[in-house]
Amino acid sequence: MPPEPITYRRAAFMRRHLTQPEARLWAALKGQKVQGLKFRRQHPVGRYILDFYCASAKLGIEIDGAVHDDPDQMAHDQRRTAWLAEQGIRLIRFPAASVRNNLDGVVAGILAEVGGR
């Protein structure tokens, strides 16, 4: 399912306004700095926008702030993860605090996930 035009516009806006943890992880992932893998930021898939996406590994990465602790948001996240899985995309999540406090550990977790595919 191709993204709708509004999703592309929203993704472009979000690329220009990354959160601090997203900007920090992007600095570690951009280009091909991480073992030859190419990541995209704020990448639209269907009606959703992934914080980061690696097409070759079919891997989405989400950085979750406190809002993701809300029960309604958690239910939405579960539906989104299930839909992405139906599209063949595995989604992994990291708390924003982990990106702030343990960036090397987050990158190692991403590499471990890619290595296991």
Blueprint (SSEs and pairs):
Blueprint: H1 5-16, H2 20-29, E1 40-45, E2 48-54, E3 59-64, H3 71-86, E4 90-95, H4 96-101, H5 103-115
Parallel strand pairs: 3-4
Antiparallel strand pairs: 1-2, 2-3
Defining traits:
single chain, 117 residues, alpha+beta, Endonuclease, Chain A, 4-stranded mixed beta sheet, nuclease, Endonuclease_DUF559_bact, endonuclease, endonuclease activity, hydrolase
Would you give an account of this structure?
- It comes from Brevundimonas goettingensis.
- It holds the Pfam family DUF559.
- Residues 10-114 form the DUF559 domain.
- Keywords: Endonuclease, Hydrolase, Nuclease.
- The chain is of the alpha+beta class and 117 residues long.
- The chain has a single domain, classed as 3-Layer(aba) Sandwich (Endonuclease, Chain A), CATH 3.40.960.10.
- Helix content is 49%, strand content 21%.
- It contains five helices and four strands.
- It has a four-stranded mixed beta sheet with strand order 1-2-3-4, sandwiched between helices.
- Strand 3, helix 3 (71-86) and strand 4 form a beta-alpha-beta unit.
- The two termini are 24 Å apart.
